[in-house]
Amino acid sequence: MKAPSFRYVRARSLQHAYQVLQHHNGDAVAIAGGQSLMAGLNLRLSGPKVLVDIGGLPELSGMDCGGKEVRIGALTRHVEVLRSKALQERIPLLPQAVSHVAHAAIRNRGTLGGSLAYADPAAELPACAVALDATIVVGGLEGEREVKATDFFTGLMDTNLKPGELILAVRFPVPPPHTRFAFDEFTRRQGDFAVVGLAVTALVGGDQIETARAVYFGCVDRAKLAEQVSSALCGLKLPVADRGAIRNAVTKDLEPDDTPGWRAETKLRLAQVLTQRIVSRLAESGTQ
Ligand SMILES: Cc1cc2nc3c(=O)[nH]c(=O)nc-3n(C[C@H](O)[C@H](O)[C@H](O)COP(=O)(O)OP(=O)(O)OC[C@H]3O[C@@H](n4cnc5c(N)ncnc54)[C@H](O)[C@@H]3O)c2cc1C
C-alpha cells in the first residue's frame, strides 16, 4: 500500500518545527527516522496532512556521557547507542537492549526520541527508560519541561506529550557502582517485537539485592514499573534459591491480554520463565 498524500516541511529550526506543528493543530506530526511513522502511513493507520522533518535539527542531536548523568539527544539513532563505548561502560543496559531492536537497517535510521514518542508497549527503549529512572526533556512553543519516564507513558501508545511538543533529549542518571543489569525477551523470530520482555536494574551489596527496578514489555499496555516483582527482588540473596515469591509477584504485576497467536496464560508463563532467567543472570553478572 502507499501512504496517503501529505505535505513535507523540513524544519529550519526548533522554533520553526514547533510553529508548524502548532499551526496545523493535530494535522501535522514530526518525522525523525521514519521507521514507525512511514510504516504506519503506508498501512494507512494514520493520515497526517503535514510531516515536519526534524531530522536535521542540531538541538536534538548528540550524546553527553561525561557527568553524573548521560544526556542523549532525541535524534540519536539506535545504532549510535549500540556502538557507544561510553554507554557500554556506564549504562550497558541501553546497548544491550538496542541489540534486540529490529534489524540493522531499522537501527540505522530509528531514533531514541521516536521510539519513546511512539510508545509501543512491545518496544525495548521505553522499558529501559523506566528501569533506568530516566527523565525526558520535552519542548514546545511554551518552553521546556521535564517528565520522569515513569510518568511519561500514560497508556497504550499514549504519552504525556502535548500537541505540538517534541522530545528534545533523555537524561539517564548513571547507576551507582555495584548496579547489575539484566535484559532479555522472547520473540517469534530474531528482530521481531517482543512477545514478553524484561529489563531489570538492581543495586547489589555483597550478595544481596538492595533495590531493584523491573519493567516488562510486550505483555503490558505501557512501560511501567513492575512494583510487585521489583519489591520481591529486594532483599533476596544471590543466587536465589526459592523463587516462588517472584513467580507469584509476576502474576500480581501482569494481566496480559489474548492476542492473535498468543494466549494470555502463555504470555504469563513466558513472563515467569523470563523472570527466572533474569534473576539467574543477576547472580551470574556478579561473578564475571
Ligand atoms: C519492521 C520493523 C521492526 C521493528 N522492530 C522493532 C523492535 O523490535 N523494537 C522496537 O523498539 N522498535 C522496532 N521498530 C520501530 C523502530 O525502532 C523505530 O525506529 C522507532 O520506534 C521510532 O523511531 P523513528 O525515529 O523511526 O520515529 P518515526 O517513525 O520518525 O516517528 C515515530 C513517532 O514518533 C514521533 N516522533 C519522532 N521523534 C519525535 C520527537 N523527537 N519528539 C516527539 N515525537 C517524535 C513521530 O511524530 C511519530 O509519531 C521496528 C520497525 C519496523 C519497521
What does this structure look like?
- The chain has 288 residues and is of the alpha+beta class.
- A hairpin with a 2-residue loop joins β12 and β13.
- The chain is built from 12 helices and 13 strands.
- Helices cover 33% and strands 25% of the residues.
- α10 (227-233) packs antiparallel against α11 and α11 packs across α12.
- The model has no long low-confidence stretch (mean pLDDT 95).
- The longest helix has 22 residues, at 264-285.
- It has 3 domains: 7-53, Uridine Diphospho-n-acetylenolpyruvylglucosamine Reductase, domain 2 (2-Layer Sandwich), CATH 3.30.43.10; 58-173, Uridine Diphospho-n-acetylenolpyruvylglucosamine Reductase, domain 3, CATH 3.30.465; 179-285, Enolase-like, domain 1 (2-Layer Sandwich), CATH 3.30.390.
- The strands form 4 sheets. The protein has a 5-stranded antiparallel β-sheet with strand order 4-5-10-6-7. A 3-stranded parallel β-sheet has the order 1-3-2, with helices on one face. It has a 3-stranded antiparallel β-sheet with strand order 11-12-13.
- The structure holds flavin-adenine dinucleotide.
- Residues 29-37, 39, 74, 101-102, 106, 109-111, 113-115, 117-118, 123-125, 161, 166-167, 193 line the site of flavin-adenine dinucleotide.
